[in-house]
Design brief:
2 domains; 4-stranded mixed β-sheet; 4 strands; 51% helix
Length: 331
């Protein structure tokens, strides 16, 4: 097999975010999971782990006999577009190239047999992850259906099930007890409303961290997609066009659907920026709410911990500073 230069791949690059965005998104998710789950998160520059600055790129050329290639200079994972339609091979190829990334970082000798084994392990771990997510979804649906089935099973006032009227009931011992706290107080909400994430939580802190991970992970995946897969910095090229398309509900003829955009370009951009920044502010509030427990929970999660607000903010455009006008009562 002839050696292939990275420049050849660049000449035959395919913009998978435009051709098949769902496949491009899944490839980034698999690679991010591979770096984290398989513990290959060695610092590449003393500050930022490999798994937080990689880029998945695609090439299409029948004359290039490669399933994938790792570019150690830029930390880019190249995948052959000929693998489209074969998600298992795409996953194994990503695992193969991740292993080469670790070899390059640690200056190990290149070992293709070990890289192939790593591809197989990543495929197995990814399938187990998807099965676990599907099982949780089925369990959550079953619980929701059970709750809905008995939500309105109650007798009407005045039936034979009611206790007899007692005009002195206010003088009973039970009536003089201190009033119970609200049934849906913060503690109950924090402990049980996120139980679908990882089973019933045992503490308020665990419930709060579950909410933080859910919001931070979803927001990170969205901004990565808006960045065309980049996870190291904001990609300004075409970024506002993608935000406008996303927040306008653009499902019209140009997008392959029958609906028309509901908002204009500038209104969509303004709405999108406000939404992204408000969600980022909420992640920061959840982090602040955790206090000193945040570091403890993140250390326990290790490489699987959700991205921080600083990592998410790195993928968004700079926020326009708030200026108070002279004579304004706003702060």
């Amino acid at each position: 097999m002839r050696d292939v230069d990275t420049r050849e791949l660049q000449e035959r690059e395919v913009d998978m975010w435009a051709e098949a965005p769902e496949i491009a998104t899944k490839a980034v998710q698999v690679a991010y999971f591979g770096f984290k789950e398989l513990a290959y998160h060695f610092p590449s520059d003393g500050q930022m782990p490999l798994g937080e600055r990689f880029l998945v790129r695609w090439f299409d050329d029948p004359a290039i006999p490669l399933a994938g290639r790792y570019d150690g200079e830029k930390n880019h994972i190249w995948i052959n577009a000929a693998l489209l339609g074969n998600p298992a091979e795409i996953c194994k190829t990503i695992g193969h190239e991740i292993f080469h990334a670790v070899e390059v970082k640690n200056r190990w000798r290149i070992n293709h047999e070990a890289a192939e084994g790593n591809g197989e392990r990543l495929l197995d771990a990814w399938r187990k992850r998807e099965e676990a997510i599907e099982a949780k979804a089925r369990d959550a649906s079953a619980k929701a259906a059970a709750l809905a089935a008995r939500a309105f099973r109650r007798h009407f006032p005045g039936s034979s099930f009611d206790a007899a009227y007692d005009e002195h009931a206010f003088q009973t011992v039970e009536a003089r007890q201190p009033h119970a706290r609200a049934q849906y107080g913060y503690e109950v909400e924090g402990k049980y409303n996120t139980a679908w994430l990882s089973g019933t939580n045992s503490s308020v802190g665990e419930g709060a961290f579950g909410r933080l991970e859910a919001f931070a992970s979803d927001l990170f995946q969205l901004v990565v997609q808006l960045n065309r897969g980049r996870t190291d910095a904001w990609d300004s090229t075409g970024w506002y066009d993608r935000v406008a398309s996303l927040y306008s509900g653009d499902l019209g003829r140009n997008a392959g659907g029958s609906l028309e955009p509901t908002m204009g370009r500038q209104a969509s951009i303004n709405t999108g920026l406000a939404d992204l920044q408000s969600r980022l502010d909420f992640v920061r509030e959840l982090e602040k709410q955790m206090g000193s427990q945040l570091a403890t929970f993140r250390a326990a999660r290790g490489a699987l911990a959700a991205p921080t607000s600083d990592q998410i903010a790195r993928l968004l455009p700079p926020r326009i500073p708030h200026r108070t006008f002279v004579g304004s009562t706003s702060t």
